[in-house]
Write a structure and sequence with these properties.
- With 875 residues, this protein is of the alpha/beta class.
- The protein is built from ten helices and 48 strands.
- It is globular.
- Bound molecules: 2-acetamido-2-deoxy-beta-D-glucopyranose (10 copies).
- One 2-acetamido-2-deoxy-beta-D-glucopyranose binds next to loops.
């Protein structure tokens, strides 16, 4: 009876099991497929076509990112689509993938919230939705995923609190990352139930409350991060028992209290200790030096007091010690013992004790610090004595801060050995003597000392100075070195409050990205150089309290200037009234009694009519004069053209050889040099285009200096260059005249695709072609060109005539230029004209319209132009 019953239940169970199995698997193909199809239907953007294989022509287990089980071959066990730029919502239907163990959709563009239904995925081990744009709360249902081990939700926009059920029930959770969201509320006390946790990362949220003492229960915890929250209170004692702890990062919170003296004895594995940016006070516990693995200590911006423990040198692995901005004290030599002891830290890289109350003399043994140190700051302490010379032995230093102390004496010459130094701050000390000329830096601040002598031109021409120099408030004298123009990468120059004399060098425009220039309160004179107009980025210019004179140039109205101080100088004439000059809040012109005019708000006296600023020649006389001059010039050009052409071939035969011998040795330029110089021939660098090919702007080293160049890439498909391209180029390079475009180099090579590649490198003319000045294209120019003045036009005409004269009479070869037209006349920084020229033979088959007259129109074209351009140039 009993057996029958047992048997029948057995059968019943069997039957139930098998029938339910059949029923389930019959549906499974469809359940999982339709769940995936629903997932796909919520994806609105799929630029990488990650889901293009998701169609009915294949079984869903073969779709990209879908993995099915071994025992249940129809069931999806993993959906892995990281970094696919998928946008859209996460479909609820994923909750129907009940065999899912791994859901990894990290680094996409998913929006909306995390579906509550995901809590049904009881087999889920890994959920990675990091780096999306998910909103809403963290569903507390996730605590039903009792197998969850890895929960990564970092860098989304999740709101609300950390659900306590999550920390209470997810017993298996090893990795919890909620970093970089907008979570509020406190850290749940139930955190202590995550007994398997290895990593907990709650940093960069707005979590408040205190650290629960239950944390001490987590005996496997290695990484605990709560940086950048609003956590208050003291560090619970229990935490110090977690001997597995490796990184304890509590920085940037509102933690407080005294760290008990013996507290660090248990942290035998601790490597990183971040307590920075809190309200800790009291002494730094000596027991810290018992954490024998400790390598990275960051306690800056707290209220620690007392001396720095001298046992700290026991930490053999220490490479980072930042204790700056506390109230640490050194009142007797013994309190400086940490310096001696730290000479044993052979990996030390960063040492910052600035902004404390360390008094007295820095021990010379600082010179025995590890040679690997690159960052050393002792600034803002009441240190006395002089700079320990030995610091010059720490040659890996990139940053050295010894500012705001009571150090006197000189800047050691030996600092010149610090060849890696980028930032040197010695400001606000009591230093005397001269500035050593041997330094190589990015930032150099020696302001507020008592330094004397001239500005060393070696320093002021260092292209490595990239951020700024501050030499203000010293007693430096002499003039500004011309080499200042080599500071191509510098943003700020402050030389104010010294005794500098002389003029502003015209080379100043070499400082191409200079934003702030302060030379107020010196003894400088002369006028504002016209090259200043090229300094397009200049925003703040302070020339106040010098003896500058002359007119304030009109071009300054079109600069990017936001603040201009020219007060207390001897400027005269009409003050411009636009741009920075419109407003008293942006310009200071006080103390220049000879200035007049300007914007009404400036309240200067009116300029009297006879101010000899611009004398006007009657227009009719001018037109006649200019027409005559123009016609004459054209006539000469035509004759020269004609003559040269006639003689050209003969002279080429005769002279080419001699010239080639005379030319400087060939400057080797490869295709790759040009590729680099023009940022890969990027379209942003195109400055001209035509049948001949394309001209790019580029930057490359020419004779050791980084120089702007124009690279003309010859279009060989259309034309084909002569076989003697390179030797012809050399001839071109030997043609040197101040009014001719300099050919810097030529390149005859093979490009990336193996095609023949020929290019010419010219000097770059920042002011474009005459054509652009005469007929500005509106679309091209946000800042309209100033129209050319009479003098400028005459000067250009003279420049052009000189160029032609040289080419035809004194040049090295049969150089013809009958295609003289405004687009072939280029203007440099100082508006000096440079003619683009060519050798008649260089392209036998090129017939380059732009370069030579031997095009289809031949003479006629040149001739026509001379006629028509007379009007164009001279009107
Ligand atoms: C599921 O689909 C696969 C392939 O289409 C098929 O071989 C299998 O028999 C299907 N399973 C069920 C239970 O229908
Ligand atoms: C369906 O997916 C296959 C790859 O799995 C692909 O080759 C095919 O083009 C897709 N068909 C359609 C209509 O997208
Ligand atoms: C989940 O599957 C069930 C039955 O297979 C179906 O009724 C339900 O609509 C599915 N849910 C979603 C969100 O697709
Ligand atoms: C989850 O995604 C984050 C962010 O891309 C990544 O750093 C982490 O390694 C991922 N973890 C797992 C287990 O997939
Ligand atoms: C967890 O699942 C149970 C049923 O299995 C359900 O009653 C409960 O509401 C779920 N919890 C959450 C937080 O969704
Ligand atoms: C969580 O831990 C506390 C003690 O910290 C314990 O009292 C509680 O029972 C635990 N909860 C669960 C669900 O295990
Ligand atoms: C931090 O907490 C204080 C109150 O203690 C509050 O005023 C402040 O807004 C909080 N900051 C953030 C970022 O939540
Ligand atoms: C440090 O302590 C001083 C008093 O000793 C207090 O005035 C100051 O606000 C504290 N600073 C911080 C950041 O806690
Ligand atoms: C450096 O370490 C050695 C042993 O490793 C020790 O003898 C010496 O006293 C230490 N030096 C300092 C200055 O602490
Ligand atoms: C100095 O710095 C360089 C580059 O960072 C590094 O390769 C070298 O090992 C460092 N020297 C020492 C002694 O650490």
């Amino acid at each position: 009876m009993k057996r029958v019953y047992l048997l029948s239940t057995h059968l019943l169970v069997l039957g139930l099991v098998s029938s339910s199995f059949v029923a389930e698997s019959a549906n499974d193909n469809e359940t999982d497929m339709s769940a995936l199809m629903s997932f796909k239907s919520f994806i609105t953007g799929d630029p990488l076509r990650a889901l293009s294989s998701w169609n009915s022509s294949h079984h869903h287990c073969e779709w990209q990112g879908v993995i099915c089980g071994r025992r249940h071959p129809e069931r999806v066990t993993a959906l892995v689509l990281p970094a696919q730029q998928l946008s859209g919502h996460i479909s609820l239907s994923l909750a129907n993938l009940t065999f899912l163990k791994k859901l990894d959709l990290r680094q996409n563009r998913l929006i909306g919230s995390i579906p509550e239904d995901l809590g049904r995925l009881s087999r889920l081990k890994l959920l990675n939705l990091s780096l999306n744009s998910l909103h809403g709360r963290i569903p507390s249902s996730l605590s039903n995923c009792s197998n969850l081990e890895f929960l990564h939700l970092k860098d989304n926009s999740l709101q609300g609190t950390i659900p306590p059920s999550l920390t209470q029930y997810c017993r298996h959770l090893k990795f919890l990352s909620l970093k970089g969201n907008r979570l509020l509320g406190s850290i749940p006390e139930s955190l202590g139930n995550l007994t398997n946790a290895v990593t907990i990362d709650l940093s960069h949220n707005t979590v408040s409350g205190s650290i629960p003492s239950s944390l001490g229960e987590l005996q496997f915890l290695q990484f605990f991060y709560i940086i950048g929250n609003n956590v208050t209170g003291k560090i619970p004692h229990s935490i110090y028992n977690i001997s597995s702890m490796i990184n304890l990062e509590l920085g940037d919170n509102k933690l407080e209290g005294i760290l008990p003296p013996e507290i660090f004895n248990g942290f035998s594995n601790l490597k990183k200790l971040y307590l920075w940016g809190n309200y800790f006070k009291g002494q730094i516990p000596v027991s810290l030096s018992n954490c024998s693995s400790l390598a990275h200590i960051d306690l800056q911006f707290n209220n620690f007091t007392g001396p720095l423990p001298s046992s700290i040198g026991k930490l053999k692995s220490l490479y980072w010690l930042a204790v700056n901005s506390n109230q640490l004290e050194a009142n007797k030599p013994r309190d400086w013992g940490f310096i001696d002891s730290m000479t044993n830290c052979t990996n030390l890289q960063l040492f910052d004790i600035s902004n404390n109350r360390l008094r007295g003399v820095i021990p010379n043994t600082i010179a025995n610090f590890s040679a690997s140190i690159y960052y050393l700051r002792v600034s803002a302490n009441p240190i006395s004595g002089s700079i320990p010379k030995g610091i010059a032995a720490l040659t890996n230093l990139t940053t050295l801060g010894i500012d705001q102390t009571f150090l006197g004496g000189i800047i050691p010459k030996e600092f010149g050995r610090l060849q890696n130094l980028q930032l040197l701050s010695l400001s606000n000390n009591m230093m005397v003597g001269e500035v050593p000329a041997t330094l190589a830096l990015a930032v150099f601040d020696i302001s507020n000392n008592n330094l004397v002598g001239a500005i060393p031109k070696e320093i002021i021409s260092l292209p490595s100075l990239s951020i700024g120099i501050n030499f203000s408030h010293n007693h430096l004298n002499g003039s500004l070195p011309l080499e200042i123009g080599f500071l191509k990468n510098i943003e700020t120059i402050d030389l104010s409050n010294n005794k500098l004399s002389g003029e502003i060098p015209t080379t100043i425009d070499g400082c191409q990205i200079l934003r702030n220039l302060y030379i107020g309160r010196n003894m400088m004179s002369g006028t504002i150089p016209s090259t200043l107009r090229n300094m397009r980025g200049l925003q703040v210019l302070d020339l106040s309290r010098n003896s500058f004179s002359g007119e304030v140039p009109q071009f300054m109205t079109r600069m990017a200037l936001q603040l201009l101080n020219i007060s207390f100088n001897n400027f005269e004439g009409q003050l411009p009234s636009e741009g920075v000059f419109m407003n008293l809040s942006t310009v200071d012109i006080r103390g220049n009694p000879k200035l007049c005019g300007g914007a009404p708000e400036i309240h200067l006296r009116k300029c009297s009519l006879d101010t000899p600023t611009h004398r006007h020649i009657p227009r009719s006389i001018l037109v006649t004069l200019l027409s005559i001059a123009g016609a004459f010039l054209c006539l000469i050009s035509m004759m020269l053209c004609f003559l040269s052409h006639r003689h050209s071939l003969r002279r080429l035969q005769r002279r080419k050889h001699a010239i080639t011998v005379m030319t400087p040795q060939h400057m080797n330029i490869s295709y790759h040099d040009l590729l680099k110089a023009t940022s890969g021939f990027s379209s942003e660098n195109v400055i001209g285009m035509g049948g001949f090919g394309v001209v790019y702007k580029g930057v490359m080293a020419v004779e050791g200096l980084s120089t702007s160049v124009a690279v003309k890439v010859i279009n060989l498909e259309q034309r084909g260059a002569s076989r003697s391209f390179l030797s012809e180029c050399e001839t071109l390079r030997s043609v040197r005249h101040r009014n001719l475009i300099k050919v810097l180099s030529c390149c005859s090579s093979i490009d990336q695709r193996g095609n023949e590649f020929k290019a010419l490198v010219f000097e770059y003319m920042p002011n474009g072609s005459l054509e652009e000045w005469l007929h500005p294209k509106e679309s091209m120019d946000q800042q309209p060109f100033e129209s050319l003045g009479i003098t400028q036009r005459l000067n250009i005409a003279i420049d052009v005539a000189e160029a032609l004269d040289y080419l035809h009479e004194h040049g090295p070869g049969p150089v013809v230029h009958c295609d003289l037209k405004p687009s072939n006349i280029l203007l440099d920084n100082e508006m000096i004209a440079h003619v683009r020229f060519w050798i008649s033979e260089i392209f036998d088959s090129t017939r380059d319209h732009d370069l030579s007259i031997h095009d289809k129109h031949g003479w006629n074209q040149g001739f026509d132009w001379l006629h028509s351009s007379r009007v164009r140039i001279w009107e």
